[in-house]
Amino acid sequence: MNFILSDVQNGVMTLTLNRPERLNSFNDEMHRQLAEVLTQAERDESIRCLLITGAGRGFCAGQDLNDRNVDPSGDAPDLGASVENFYNPLVKRLAKLPKPVIAAVNGVAAGAGATLALGCDIVIAARSVNFVMSFSKLGLVPDCGGTWYLPRLAGHARAMGLALMGDKLSAEQALQWGMIWQVVDDEALNDTARQLATHFASQPTFGLGLVKKALYASETNTLDAQLDLERDYQRMAGRSEDYREGVSAFLAKRPAVFKGK
């Protein structure tokens, strides 16, 4: 089965998690298919924005527990292997992708599905969405970047409460806390997300990629190191074709036509 659907139009790759009967929860084959599609997004220069959403009534319910059924009389499963082989590479690849990544969150986003969404560059959620850090309900630790992203998005106190209690967090509350970019009516989600993705696909992609790298680096850099990085990235951006086009268009008072280079 195609557990991951991909479609490329006008510079936008739409990646759809496609196990709607299981609320798009992950199994190993779904991870492998996702990895293949991400390779295309990384290598294809005509793809200038990645849009991730879910099929059916949910975004992603995290890990499919049917794949992690525990036999009381058998050996305990090595959940760390799944994190190391699948979730960790996924988080790193999305963060390092030198193109904007948008999550259009529809329906439930639980466990690794919630942390996957929150790890995207821009999160647009339908009004009915709930984010659920359900790991603690199973005696587990938030993965898929959850313990890294949560405190940075929500602050220490809120991150601790969300992770320890595993309660639902509404899209509206997530927006108020500054964890996501936008909340829209359910019926407007797809159009809103696609319009933004199409916008990004027409922008100076090379520069946007440097913005991502700089912001991630700021999480661990000193001020001096970050200032040096800004200098270096600005030097690189200033040598790009897109910068030349942007200045030329500004001076000629015409719309810029960026090529993402």
Automatic annotation (TrEMBL):
CDD domains xrefs: crotonase-like
Cross-referenced InterPro entries: ClpP/crotonase-like_dom_sf, Enoyl-CoA_hyd/isom_CS, Enoyl-CoA_hydra/iso, Enoyl-CoA_hydra_C, PaaB1
Gene Ontology molecular function: enoyl-CoA hydratase activity
Key words of the record: Lyase
Domain of life from the UniProt record: Bacteria
Keyword Repeat found: no
UniProt keyword Lyase present: yes
EC number: 4.2.1.17
Top-rank EC class of the record's enzyme: lyase
Family per similarity comment: Belongs to the enoyl-CoA hydratase/isomerase family.
Protein name according to UniProt: PaaB family phenylacetate degradation enoyl-CoA hydratase
Organism placement in taxonomy: Bacteria, Pseudomonadati, Pseudomonadota, Gammaproteobacteria, Enterobacterales
